[in-house]
Amino acid sequence: MSGAEGQDGSSVPDEEWERFLRESVAGVPGAPVEPSARAREVERRLRERPGQPEGWRTYSPARPRRRTGWYVAGLVAVVALLVVSLFPQQVLGWFGGDDGGPDKAPLAAESETPREAPGAERDLPPTLDEPFRGSPAARWADGAAGITLPPARATGWMDAAQVERALRQSRDFLAAAGLDPGVLRGERPTKAIALLNPHQKDVQEYLRTALSSKRPTPKTDPLLLFSRFRPEQSRLVGDVVRTRGRLTYREGEKGAVEVTADVTFVYPVAPAGDGGRDSEVVRTIVRREVVMSWDDPARIIIEPGTMSLVSYALDMVNGGCSTPTGYFVPPFGTADEQPTDEDRRVDPYDRSKPIDTGDGTAATGSNCATATRS
User: Fold this and answer.
1) Do the domain assignments include residue 33?
2) What is the average pLDDT across 266-275?
3) Mean of the per-residue pLDDT values of the chain
4) Domain range spanning residue 312?
5) Does residue 85 belong to any structural domain of this protein?
6) CA angle at 304 for the pair 302 and 309, rounded to the nearest 5°
């Protein structure tokens, strides 16, 4: 019976029993294996969410939002600002703005003699609402604001503070002579005369003759110093005169401070008594060069706060081209009838060239020059 029973008396042979014990520990090759609980969980997730599974201990940061739209918008804005800064006039033209519109950028103050004439403007006639459109004056400053004063420094007999005061008073003279509403209507230029040395005999004689004579000569024409219109003939359009120019100074004779003014005035005028919306508007353009000497009272007989005139010159267009009358005479409706010098054509806005002073007092033939624009 021992050949058919195991060691414990069972019917299983010893060899089979030992093989059973080994396979229980090592496993039978090819036998199915019961999956673990985690394996069953992973299998379930794969069935529910197909695709590549995430690692057990991996981390995938959130993908940043794509901001391409913001970058493009920012780049466009930067380019637009650059174009506007480099080509402001052209940009305004793209949007239909005219040369006299309120959005026209004003020019910086004139700090030195221009090297060339202003560029061409759009060919637009002046109107009652926009009397400066179509001209460089559309970008000029109003009144005395367009007359630049240089920094003051001690010169001649004056310290810096005195030079600064002399410069301000020189500008005051120009404003009183060429911008005062009463003077423009033909009234006596009292404020301007008050700044002139009463002991300068030749100037005082000129003033007496120019402001009293009904038949002034080229040398006694009050227009040499003062801007005047006949109220019964013409009226200023609005209350603004555009100006552009500057003052310079140096030490003159006997330690005086010699101030030179070079200023262009643009006067838009319409016929007097014509209040219609279609009134003709003409621009009378006047350029003046006045040299003033603020003398040392220790060397020159002079009243405090006054100055002596060294010279004064005038150049103008649309102010008359005939015998002097003491007033500007705008060519309303008669531009084609005005006798002009076709051989002498001038750009009244060109400040790069000096005034033709002729004999040193008035610009010879300036009244009859042909203006290339107004």
Assistant:
1) no
2) 90
3) 82
4) 125-371
5) no
6) 50
Q: How far apart are CA 215 and CA 195, in angstroms?
A: 26
In the predicted structure, residue 356 carries a pLDDT above the cut 50: yes
Distance CA 178, CA 252 (A): 25
Cβ–Cβ < 8 Å for 328, 319: yes
| Total number of domains constituting the chain | 1
59, part of any domain: no
Residue 215 lies in a domain: yes
Q: What's the first-to-final CA gap in the chain, in angstroms?
A: 144
Query: What distance in Å separates the CA atoms of residue 222 and residue 231, rounded to the nearest whole number?
Result: 16
Residue 245 Cα distances to 24, 108, 260, 361, angstroms: 114, 11, 11, 20
State the DSSP code for 97. Answer: -
Residue 135 CB-density burial (10 A; 0-12 exposed, 13-18 middle, 19+ buried) = buried
Which tokens sit at 112? 């030195």
Distance CA 316, CA 264 (A): 9
What does pTM read for this prediction?
A: 0.71
Name the residue among 263, 223, 152 with its Cα closest to residue 367: 223
DSSP string, 256-295: -EEEEEEEEEEEEEEETT--STT---EEEEEEEEEEEEE-
Nearest to residue 289, comparing CAs of 227, 374, 354? 354
